[in-house]
Specification:
about 425 residues, three-stranded antiparallel β-sheet, 8 strands, about 45% helix
Length: about 425
């Protein structure tokens, strides 16, 4: 068994009394949540040894047994230096074992792949400040080939994230006693600053018409990537936007068209992210209740749970459209906004995203862009637009920050600050009614 208690420094200490050991070590954290996670990992490793009669644990030296119980690092069978490829693999395995969300681990893997591509299977102890600087310089000249920022250079913030992710790998092994590693080498790497462009002059969270006026004044083409990033729709624009989609999609009557239209309705009513729309199943909707609801499956802000299930209320006006979608979907299909159920794996989901595959999130974005083509909204096709718009309207209506967070499901209150411009404008209207 394993237990925890506070030591005299205020940190948590972990005691292991199992498998012939009676040892205590500092978890080096004052966080109860972090200490509980470490405790669960240790207990899981103890159970795995007890259950698996062929587990190699008993063949390891005592020092390596204790190290594995504490960290999960198995003894290395070779006497050579730790190489980058094996270090990254072990680090990602550790992150998965600590119940990190699949999409989070995929993000780590993507950033670390850039390091593997540049350095190859280099010994981690050979990652000097000079070599890290060469990598940072190489990344600064890398042109993005896909996504919303294609044809642009990597942003300094992205380069810094990649460096920090590699630093996390080095620090993790360094903290576990692997010799000759130099996490301090990352501190001397110089990263440039982002070159200002005309897009930086745009106001964040302007409404659609104001953004169009700004683009004309600054001479920015409407179809330029990022020109309509971080905007909202005012109420008049919002109603027109929905009406345009209704005429183009719902009246059309095809399964694909009605599916996209209903996905928009759910997004504007709940602030659901694109990936969260893809996870919605028939069983998540309760349209027959006095208060229609749906259950959104979230990964962001989920804490230690594999998934976070959040109940959101639906406007009654949305129910007839969703009922029609349910009637025309294949009877045995679980997924509501995807073309099939191949991304549903038991009670979980395949979180990988591939462009052009019907059951994936990118495909849903492509359908939205196609739906808005030839309308005035064609360059502002973004699922996050609906999230921004809902948050702004709720704040302008005077709802508290906590109420807005509960409805939309932000991960932290800091995100609400993005929309504080709305409440300031609302307060200005109020005060000017008193002092006309």
């Amino acid at each position: 068994m394993a237990t925890k208690r506070k030591n005299q420094n205020g940190d948590w200490s972990i005691s292991i009394q199992s498998l012939g050991f009676n040892t205590t070590f500092s978890a080096r954290t004052t966080s109860t949540k972090h200490a509980n996670r470490i405790l669960r990992e240790i207990e899981s490793r103890i159970d795995s040894v007890k259950i698996d009669g062929a587990h190699p644990f008993h063949s390891w030296p005592k020092k390596e047994q204790v190290k594995w119980l504490k960290t999960g690092l198995e003894p290395r069978t070779d006497s050579g230096p730790l190489t980058l490829f094996s270090a990254v693999d072990d680090f990602l395995t550790h992150k998965r074992a600590t119940n990190k969300a699949p999409v989070t681990v995929q993000g780590y893997e993507l950033f670390l792949q850039a390091a593997k591509d540049f350095f190859g299977d280099i010994a981690v102890e050979d990652l000097s400040a000079r070599k890290l600087q060469d990598w940072a310089d190489n990344q600064a000249s890398t042109v993005i080939t896909n996504g919303k920022n294609r044809a642009q250079l990597l942003a300094p913030t992205t380069i810094k994230k990649k460096l920090n992710q590699l630093k996390s790998v080095v620090k993790w092994f360094h903290s576990h006693g692997v010799p000759n590693l130099r996490p301090e080498a990352f501190g001397s790497v110089s990263i440039g600053v982002k070159t200002a462009t005309s897009l930086d002059k745009l106001n964040k969270y302007d409404d659609f018409d104001n953004r169009c006026i700004q683009l004309q004044k600054l001479g920015i083409e409407f179809d330029r990537e990022g020109a309509f990033k971080n905007i909202i729709l005012d109420k008049k624009q919002f109603m027109q936007h929905i009406e345009d989609l209704k005429q183009k999609l719902f009246v059309d009557g095809s399964v694909v068209s009605i599916r996209v239209f209903c996905a928009v309705l759910v997004a504007v009513a709940t602030g659901a992210r694109r990936a969260e729309l893809c996870r919605l199943c028939r069983s998540d909707f309760d349209l027959d209740a006095d208060i229609p609801t749906l259950q959104i499956t979230k990964l962001k802000g989920r804490g230690t749970d594999p998934y976070l299930r959040q109940i959101s209320a639906l406007p009654i006006t949305h129910v007839p459209y969703l009922r029609k979608l349910f009637r025309i979907l294949p009877a045995n299909q679980k997924s509501v906004f995807c073309s099939d159920d191949s991304h549903i794996v038991g009670d979980s989901f395949d979180e990988s995203v591939e462009t052009g595959v019907p059951e994936k999130a990118n495909y849903l974005t492509n359908l939205l862009k196609k739906s808005l083509a030839t309308t005035r909204w064609e360059h502002s096709a973004s699922w996050h637009l609906y999230r921004h718009t809902l948050a702004s309207h709720l704040l302008m209506e005077g709802y508290s920050q906590n109420e807005v967070e509960n409805q939309i499901g932000w991960c932290s209150s800091e995100m609400a600050k993005r929309y504080q411009h709305s409440t300031v404008a609302h307060r200005s209207t109020i005060i000017n009614t008193i002092f006309p």
